[in-house]
Write a structure and sequence with these properties.
Shape: globular
CATH architecture: 3-Layer(aba) Sandwich
CATH superfamily: Glutaredoxin
Helix content: 25-40%
Structural class: alpha/beta
Strand order of the largest sheet: 2-1-5-4-3-6-7
Distance between the termini: 74 Å
CATH class: Alpha Beta
CATH topology: Glutaredoxin
Number of helices: 5
């Protein structure tokens, strides 16, 4: 009987310890730190941007919704970089497709940092559902919003959390409604 109880206790402990691996990253938790290389092979660490609002986007060159989302991310970058917004776009293209990243970035005229995670370093800590997936991280490194799937980041209704963290008032398009897209300035 004592041996049975010990086996049960050990089994419970193993299951409990393993369950942490499957807990999703949720709003209100600290964003897991990582270090990845950019397109110039320079290491970039998420924690380097403490004190700024970070728009952390996971994407891939083969992902059609990612391709559709990127232009609005570039507009977001151009409009809010001066207010302290940092966009980090992490490509999850694996080793066999990393050659596709520089032409993709050039073809889309992207000017924000693009990081490469071809070995899946961020897979476990971020427990993504797929791509695109975006994490809005505040100045203290806390996840404030998680967006699964693509979003038009030029729409004012997509910017509520970001603009409140940046303490700015978003501009509507000239003569536009509050839910109309912003125009690139």
């Amino acid at each position: 009987m004592l041996a049975g109880a010990a086996v049960l206790a050990v089994t419970f402990a193993i299951v409990w310890l393993q369950s942490a691996k499957y807990e999703p990253l949720v709003v209100g938790k600290v964003a897991p730190d990582f270090a990845l290389s950019d397109l110039n092979d320079q290491p970039i660490r998420l924690s380097d941007f403490r004190g700024k609002v970070v728009f952390l986007n996971f994407w891939a060159t083969w992902c059609k919704p990612c391709r559709e989302e990127m232009p609005s991310m570039e507009v977001l970058h151009k409009n809010f970089e001066k207010d302290g917004l940092v966009i980090l776009a992490v490509s999850i293209d694996r080793v066999t497709t990393t050659k596709d990243i520089p032409p993709f970035v050039k073809g889309m005229n992207l000017t924000f940092p693009v990081l490469i995670d071809s070995w899946g370093q961020t897979d476990k800590p971020y427990k993504r559902m797929g791509v695109p997936e975006t994490f809005i991280i505040d100045q203290q490194g806390i996840v404030r919003e998680i967006v699964i799937g693509p979003r038009d980041w030029t729409r004012l209704d997509s910017l509520q959390i970001l603009t409140s963290l940046l303490k700015v008032t978003p501009k509507a398009a000239e003569g536009g409604e509050p839910d109309r897209p912003m125009r690139e300035s």
